[in-house]
Design brief:
The complex is a heterodimer of chains A (89) and B (80). Helix content of chain A is 72%, strand content 0%. Chain B folds into two domains: 43 residues, no CATH class; 36 residues. The longest helix of chain B is centred in the C-terminal third of the chain and has 32 residues. The relative contact order of chain B is 0.06. Chain B is flat. Chain B contains two helices and no strands. The N and C termini of chain B lie far apart (41 Å). The mean pLDDT of chain B is 86. Classes of the chains: A mainly alpha (89), B mainly alpha (80). At the A-B interface, helix 2 of A face helix 1 and helix 2 of B.
Chain lengths: 89, 80
């Protein structure tokens, strides 16, 4: 099953559950908007948390950076030898 | 520098976790606590639990619309 269908069924199930709770007066009607706003806030928090965790575990690969700098230097020399302007030196 | 990145990431996750726990406590746990418990003085009245996220969402939406309009106008001015 596709991922979006799963997410949509989950949202519909939670909405039905919340409307059921409202209808049977377990939750007073002044609190209708409590659950959707709670879910939106927690979704925002989850997104922020994932960004923070990704930033913490970001790999920097220092060896690759060195190899990349060497590649750039070689390319610049090759192009300069063939009389192509490489910009800043 | 990776240390600055790590510090920003840690700050972001700390902010998000604190907002989540505060909001969960406010919305879910506090209604079941007796009204003369001392913990109620650390939390705003319950109406603000709905007003503040809605207000923040509206502010974010306005900011996005203003930003998009600004960028569109700037690109149109540059083309003309």
């Amino acid at each position: 099953m596709k991922h979006v269908v799963k997410i949509l069924t989950l949202v519909v199930a939670i909405t039905a559950f919340w409307i059921g709770l409202l209808q049977t007066s377990v939750v007073p009607c002044s609190h209708t908007w409590l659950l959707p706003i709670y879910f939106i806030v927690s979704l925002g928090c989850y997104g922020l948390l994932m960004v923070g965790i990704g930033l913490i575990c970001f790999p920097t690969c220092p060896q690759e950076a060195l190899l990349l700098q060497q590649d750039i230097k070689e390319a610049k020399e090759y192009l300069k030898r063939n009389k192509i302007d490489v910009g800043s030196d | 520098m990776e240390l600055a990145d790590r510090a920003v990431g840690f700050l972001l996750s700390f902010i998000s976790l604190s907002i989540f726990t505060y909001y969960t406590f406010w919305v879910i746990i506090l209604p079941f606590v007796d009204s003369d418990h001392f913990i109620h003085q650390y939390f705003l009245p319950q109406e603000y639990a709905i007003l503040i996220p809605v207000f923040a969402g509206v502010v974010l939406l306005c900011f996005l619309c203003i930003f998009i309009g600004f960028v569109t106008l700037k690109s149109k001015k540059k083309k003309a």
